[in-house]
Structures are given as C-alpha cells and as structure tokens.
Amino acid sequence: GAVVSQHPSWVICKSGTSVKIECRSLDFQATTMFWYRQFPKQSLMLMATSNEGSKATYEQGVEKDKFLINHASLTLSTLTVTSAHPEDSSFYICSANPGEETQYFGPGTRLLVL
Amino acid sequence: SQQGEEDPQALSIQEGENATMNCSYKTSINNLQWYRQNSGRGLVHLILIRSNEREKHSGRLRVTLDTSKKSSSLLITASRAADTASYFCAQRSGNTPLVFGKGTRLSVIA
C-alpha cells in the first residue's frame, strides 16, 4: 500500500513555543491530506483538511490561527501548533488518499507540552 | 456528530478464540473501513467494504455490512496475542474524510 511518513515521531516542548509537524506522501501525490488528533484511549478526531495550493478547511471548534496548515506541494503538508500549551499535548496523525478509496495514515507524532 | 459507535468498548479473550467487534454508523456511506492501532502507533488499514457489499474476507478477518441497520462487524478468527490492539471502524460518505468510531480495545491473552 501507499506510504505516508511523519516527522518528528515525538516532540517535547515548553509552553508557549511553536511546533511544526511534517506529513509526507512518499510514493504518491496527494492534493488532499487530513490531520487528526487523538487523546489517550479515545478515537481519532478530524482537525482539518489540507488542500494543496489553497487554504485548509478546519472542522468546527478547531482554531485555524492556532493550528496552521501549509500544503505547499503535492507530497508535503505541515501542521504548526502555535504557542503550544499543555492541553495541546496529544497524538497527531496525518493521512492521505492516493486517489483510491483507502486512506493511508502516517505513524503519528506524539506532542508533549510542558 | 457523525461519529459511529463500536461495541464492545473493550474485549478480552484467550488466544485461539474468535473476536467479534461491532460498529454502528449514522449516515449513508460509500464504504466502511476497519483499521487497527497498536498502542501509541499509527493506523494500519485492514479491510474496506463497499456499500453494495455484504461480506468480505481477508485472511483471518471477516467483515459484514448491513446498510439497512447501518452496522458492520469485524470477526477475527483464531486470535493471536499479536492481535492485541485497538480496532476502529471508519465511514466514508461522498468525498468527505473518514469519520472514526470510538474503537474497541482487544486484548488477546496467551
């Protein structure tokens, strides 16, 4: 199947700093990528849809100024958590669809904000 | 919320037994997909069943879909300790992104 990578796999930062997470489709091009957030023992909640060359579409309740998404190329989307706070600590997962019905997921990035 | 529900939330079985997980959803779908997630890891796609299909097999996995009841089930036969994970169903409607259920945490005891 298609491969999606994420970097970093985990990050620890101080409160108030910004953190950038990269999502790459390694063997296919993706005009659309998705960002999910997962809290411990909970399901994945869609945060936003990242669109190459245009603005991201955010789900209700997700602050677009706090979670900046940039989809600058057909293989890379970035999520920047700005001015991170402890409540932003979570597992962030991206996914992409290579034109098939199946959606492929990255390995996730664990963020811990101290 | 369009989020579906999995049942049971947690399941503990002995190695060699079968595990059945159920999923209900709320809206019309194009397809329904099952994923596995090991603790702290990403999601692994297991199987996709389209809205016009009723049953699908893949190795030790068997998935059924009942669109009239808006429900699906995942059966894992002859379970192994390595099957211990969380299992999620996810629905796709039109071109919308996948909507995930709450998941079932499966523990297979050796």
Write a structural description.
The complex is a heterodimer of chains A (114) and B (110). Chain A contains no helices and 11 strands. Chain A has 114 residues and is mostly beta strands. In chain A, the strands form 2 sheets. In chain A, strands 2, 4, 5, 6, 9, 10 and 11 form a 7-stranded mixed β-sheet that branches. Chain A is globular. Chain B contains no helices and 11 strands. Chain B has strands at 5-7, 10-14, 19-24, 31-37, 43-50, 55-58, 61-66, 71-76, 85-92, 99-100, 104-109. In chain B, strands 2, 4, 5, 9, 10 and 11 form a 6-stranded mixed β-sheet that branches. At the A-B interface, strand 5, strand 9 and strand 10 of A face strand 4, strand 5, strand 9 and strand 10 of B.
Mean pLDDT of chain A: 93
Helix content of chain A: under 10%
Biggest interface between chains: A-B, 23 and 24 residues
Mean pLDDT score of chain B: 92
Please identify the structural class of chain A as seen in this structure: mainly beta
Question: In total, how many beta strands of chain B?
Answer: 11
Shape of chain B: globular
Quaternary class: heterodimer
Q: Write down the secondary-structure element order of chain A.
A: EEEEEEEEEEE
